[in-house]
Amino acid sequence: MKAVLFDLDGVITDTAKFHFLAWRDLGSELGIEVDEAFNEELKGVSRIDSLERILAQGGVADKYSSAEKDELCVKKNAHYLELIKEMTPADILPGIIPLLEELKAAGIKMIVTSASKNAPGILDLLQVRAYFNGIVDAATVKAGKPAPDIFLAGAQLAGADPADCVGVEDAASGVEAIKAAGIVAVAVGDEQVLALADRVLSSTADLSLAVLQEAWENSKK
Ligand code: BG6
Ligand code: MG
């Protein structure tokens, strides 16, 4: 294992709940219910693709022009930024700092492969940016998760073959993207939702170099 490709929202910090709140409120303004079950399908999905899914859910995908959709995205993001602005290193999920320390000591590359355009700012708020060898710029990725593009870009940024990487995700779309890239997937969350992953952990506290290394080695057997 030469590199670990990290999702951010829901893996490094629990911003997934803030994305949910912001989409839920925007949905309710539009008369479309975004409940937790539907939100599960939005995890890992880019801002514009999430909006498209919400509008489709409400049966109004054709009602908005592309300029109006952009405005709705700006509105959602403004609310999201308001929700996350007080974030501090105390909001880093359990087990993440020990994992980053272990990987750093072992000389394993670490890359952030988040669909979020807010990723660099969040890494700064959490004061963890220095751990990472690179952040894939979500704006430059053509096809979002579940397409493999972002994880292939992550492997390239690490200078590693996809076969020598492990991806860490909390979303079904993200696990699908990792697997489509030919990368070993370790997921954190519900085993049924994340069934495609090579290994599913119930908490980030269970993440460790040994667990990632084992998942990678098992895939080579
Ligand atoms: C992903 C989140 O990490 O980033 C999604 O799981 C979100 O919920 C996506 O829509 C895009 O984020 P942003 O910050 O660019 O709107
Ligand atoms: Mg995520």
UniProtKB/TrEMBL annotation:
Mg(2+) binds at D7, D9, E169, D170. The keyword Nucleotide-binding does not apply. The active site is at D7 (nucleophile), D9 (proton donor/acceptor). It comes from the Bacteria. Keywords: Isomerase, Magnesium, Metal-binding. It is an enzyme of class 5 (isomerase). One of its GO terms (biological process) is carbohydrate metabolic process. GO terms for molecular function: beta-phosphoglucomutase activity; magnesium ion binding. Its cofactor is Mg(2+). Substrate binds at residues 7-9, 23, 42-47, 50, 76, 114-118, 145. Binds 2 magnesium ions per subunit. Its EC number is 5.4.2.6. The record marks S114, K145 as: Important for catalytic activity and assists the phosphoryl transfer reaction to Asp8 by balancing charge and orienting the reacting groups. It holds the Pfam family Hydrolase. Belongs to the HAD-like hydrolase superfamily. CbbY/CbbZ/Gph/YieH family. This is Beta-phosphoglucomutase. It comes from Trichococcus shcherbakoviae subsp. psychrophilus. The lineage of its organism: Bacteria, Bacillati, Bacillota, Bacilli, Lactobacillales.
